[in-house]
User: Fold these one by one.
Assistant:
Number 1:
Amino acid sequence: MEILYLLVPLAMLIVALMVVIFFWAVRSGQFDDLEGPAHRIIMDDDRPDVSKGDKLEADKDKE
């Protein structure tokens, strides 16, 4: 029974800490856009970028 004198305040402290962390995350914008990053992955441009060096080599091959 004496362990409850330790466990109850410890549990209350942990819950209070979790609430503080949750409100910090909400204020810092962690939950603003949950779907945007998922849509950006799907709509990713699959075409590779062509650098200047590749363009010059491609132009030389055409000639």
Number 2:
Amino acid sequence: MKHPCRKSLCWLIPLFLVLLWGNLHVLLNRDWEESLYPSNYATLNYPLDTPTLREWKKLDGARMVPDLAWNTTPGQWQLLVDGQVSRVMPGDQPEITLAAPPLLELTNTPKDFHNYTLRPLPQGSGIDLNFSIMGVAAELYRRAGQSADHDIYIVHSDVPIGKFKRYPVSYWADDYHYVDPKSLAEADRIVHEDMGIEASDDTVTRMGKVFRYLKSVGIASAGVPRDDYRWMDPYAIFKEIKAGTGHGWCTQNAQIFVFFANRAGIPTRFVFGCNSQDNMVYYTGHSWAECYVREKARWTYVDVTMSIIGVSDRNGVPVNSADIYQMCQHDTFDGVTANIFKDWDWKDLPVTAKPKTPLSVPFALVNRMAKEEFNTEAIIKYRCAPHMEDLRGIYSMMLKDPLFAWTNFKRYLFEPPLAYSNLQTNGAHVYWVRRSLFLALCASLLLILGALFCRKGGGPEGG
């Protein structure tokens, strides 16, 4: 009589082999650009480093207590009501004391609302949170013959409110701990001595200095990069291109800028857009960057290849990639401006500028690449740290660098780049298939190991 553990091995081993084949088949036949997971505007553009609201925690007719999402606790909060200071509260206890009870009569004019500002102190520690709030008494509805169990509060605000996933800026900005310390020290020397970054420089000034230096030393799309640039660190790529022994596309331009911007104290993330079919038909394909402008608490679009170093709307608010994507769908660029360097890619632009000095121009004059890439088929992908390239089809690269291998393994199964698009993407389904197959493979392996252990410790088989 067969031992039960041996009987289980008879089907577990074939099951393991089938699952192994399934995992390898999916890996080797994947579309390279399907490693993405659909996200939303708020998750991608409202980090934990700036205060937003999850919800209002307490409504008792006289006060409203915000449930803040912020990775900082200020020293205090100052409440302003209709522009006048009302009170100061401890940093962990912000609340709004309503200026008037819920209304029994409405004028249907702005007079029904009161304006409230929660200001973190000391000033400069965070942005103001502004709300216009009107309370409406339940009695008003009941008198009109409509059932109402409680008062309601109408809140108008440009503060993002909701229980969406938030990430800190550090999730996106790479610290490059994996780069050789000597290389980091040399890069930091370049940042301070050659770029001239100073502690007093604001974000936009730093962005301009980093950009001007990189363009001055020849970092530009000038040829096909070699395969090894997929696993090499950005400083090594920079040295080769600067020396003229290597060439780069938009991807290498963005990688090098993201590296030096982060070293210069500008939280910067790598962003790329690529939508393809069967690794042969490409609808879009470009790489760029986004810098987090701390002073404005916003991400802004930076395209090194096109010498665009930040975009702003008519109110001076930094504009991100998702904003530009939606603008491109409707050709709505009125009042939108871009900071450029005319010296490199815009020499024929009919404007005057001092040499190697950033210049603000209407974005419509320089948005050619954006309009090409942010088309109907565009899928924008945001890469978190570490900013390693994707493996694609050269699997021997997994042996080149352990961090490159581990990053691509995580990206393939557990940590896909988040993506934004007007299209319905296959990302969620793709990752469900990948994860299901991988977990089933691991489970079958554990069952085989358990059966072997059982057989070894179970005594003689015969009876």
